[in-house]
Write a structure and sequence with these properties.
Number of strands: 13
Oligomer: single chain
Structural class: mainly beta
Number of helices: 0
């Protein structure tokens, strides 16, 4: 039996210090701290990666992790949306925010 582990959270951040997220289909998707890029493949599935993705055999490089979330029914599913643009145009950087003196500000990203 295949088990999918959640890699992202919809709605609310789990962390108080650093928030890493992307806006996908109008919703905030909170990701692990090592996520720097998100992209959609030809099937409509979403992935994140640590480094800027490259093309490999007609798709994004295999060095990517699927964005899996817990659904309203309690199941874990890979995030899938209808493509609004071609899959080559979906690559985007994640948004990184830190808490500082009770306020949030963009994180200084050294990556």
């Amino acid at each position: 039996m295949l088990t999918i582990t959640p890699t992202a959270v919809l709605g609310r951040s789990q962390s108080q210090d650093l928030e890493v997220f992307a806006v996908i289909d109008g919703r905030k998707v909170f990701l692990p701290e090592d996520a720097h890029y998100v992209m959609q493949d030809r099937r409509g599935l979403w992935f994140y990666s640590k480094r800027k993705p490259r093309l490999s055999e007609g798709d994004w490089t295999p060095n990517k992790t699927s964005i899996a979330c817990v659904t309203d029914r309690g199941c874990v599913r890979v995030l899938k949306t209808e493509p609004a643009a071609t899959w080559l145009e979906t690559c985007q950087r994640t948004i990184r925010m830190v808490a500082c003196d009770g306020r949030r500000r963009p994180a200084d990203d050294a990556a």
